[in-house]
Amino acid sequence: GFKTGIVGLPNVGKSTLFNALTRTAAAQAANFPFCTIEPNVGEVAVPDARLDKLAEIAGSKAIIPTRMTFVDIAGLVKGASKGEGLGNQFLANIRECDAIAHVLRCFEDGDVTHVEGRVDPVADAEVIETELMLADMDSIERRLQNIVRKVRGGDKEAVQQERLLKEVLAALEAGRPARSVEVTEDDAKAWEMLQLLTAKPVLYVCNVAEDEAAEGNAHSAAVAKMAEEQGAASVVISARIEEEISQLDADEAEMFLSELGLEEAGLDRLIKAGYKLLGLQTYFTVGPKEARAWTIPQGTPAPKAAGVIHGDFERGFIRAETIAYDDYVGLGGEQAAKDAGKMRAEGKGYIVRDGDVMHFLFNA
Ligand code: GDP
């Protein structure tokens, strides 16, 4: 599955947020109770109103949302790249994630100690980013040494690696993260193999006080500006509120949200933003038994998309019958869409689109 690592300085609200994420009613209702893989790893349902709509039309007995994984990566402090705190272990945990949700303290509270002694989320973001950049530089220098011999011997892959490594090292030395480097299609594979921490997409999570959840505050506005300049994403959330909401049932939660002037739980926005950040999209399978959402990266061809359900679907793929979400809902279901000529037969080359309702035909 796809994993987002939650990072941030100590005392910014990471654990509060993680607990809320993994205990939320949506996670529970998802037919797969929040499963503790490890104490700091949780799976959450990706909220998607389209799935409920499809289930309603088809009269599906069960609704099974797609899910994504969050990892609470505590202990990242200044000096982590030099092994301070629990440095190396945590850097290794981040390396395994597909994206980073960076929690920033945007709330003032004299009772909660700030490790740097002041509330300044933009500066905090730089502290963490600097550690990650230093860790990347370390690993790049090690790699460069390791391939010296191969490069001299004219090994093509090693030469390509060296060129990439030198390019990204120059960016890091100029204070820019690896994600600022533009990578060509030809280099994409080699680039991924480098597994650089600052190459991962970042979502800034502004943790504001309870009464600021709707509008944010000056701190979160500064973060939003920084995120925009970096081409990163940001969301405003109150971890405290989310923690409270996670203990309510769906109706109570809705009432609580409207009292606060919020349209949607912050966690829902966070999960959706994480999903988008990862370049993911959803297709559906819909029948009387269940309506289910499945996650694929954008640009996935039909056989590979089928493989997410079962390996046999991919190996024995014949074709897919596809109805776009809007057609399915607009026309009132599968049969009506079919009658209107909106069910398409698609072959191996079909690139699945977000919202497609899919039916796969395959040789067992
Ligand atoms: P972590 O070290 O980043 O995991 O931070 P925690 O989630 O443990 O939170 C540190 C402290 O800050 C706890 O006492 C939380 O209750 C408190 N806290 C978290 N979010 C908020 C918030 O939005 N407002 C206030 N006032 N306190 C918060």
Automatic annotation (TrEMBL):
Q: What are the UniProt keywords, alphabetically?
A: ATP-binding, Magnesium, Metal-binding, Nucleotide-binding
**Gene that this polypeptide is encoded by:** ychF
Transmembrane segments annotated in the record for this chain = none
- Kindly give the SUPFAM superfamilies that the UniProt entry links to this protein: P-loop containing nucleoside triphosphate hydrolases (SSF52540), TGS-like (SSF81271)
| Free-text function comment from the UniProt entry | ATPase that binds to both the 70S ribosome and the 50S ribosomal subunit in a nucleotide-independent manner.
Q: Which Pfam families match?
A: MMR_HSR1 (PF01926), YchF-GTPase_C (PF06071)
Domain OBG-type G, first and last residues per copy? 2-257
Family matches, as InterPro entries: ATPase_YchF/OLA1, Beta-grasp_dom_sf, G_OBG, GTP-bd, P-loop_NTPase, TGS-like, TGS-like_dom_sf, YchF_C
Instruction: Record the organism.
Output: Rhodovulum marinum
Concerning NCBIfam families, the annotation shows: redox-regulated ATPase YchF
Family statement drawn from the similarity comment of this UniProt entry: Belongs to the TRAFAC class OBG-HflX-like GTPase superfamily. OBG GTPase family. YchF/OLA1 subfamily.
GO CC aspect terms: cytoplasm
Which GO molecular-function terms appear in the entry? Answer: ATP binding; ATP hydrolysis activity; GTP binding; metal ion binding; ribosomal large subunit binding
Which residues are involved in binding ATP?
A: 11-16
Hydrolase keyword on record: no
Q: What is this protein called?
A: Ribosome-binding ATPase YchF
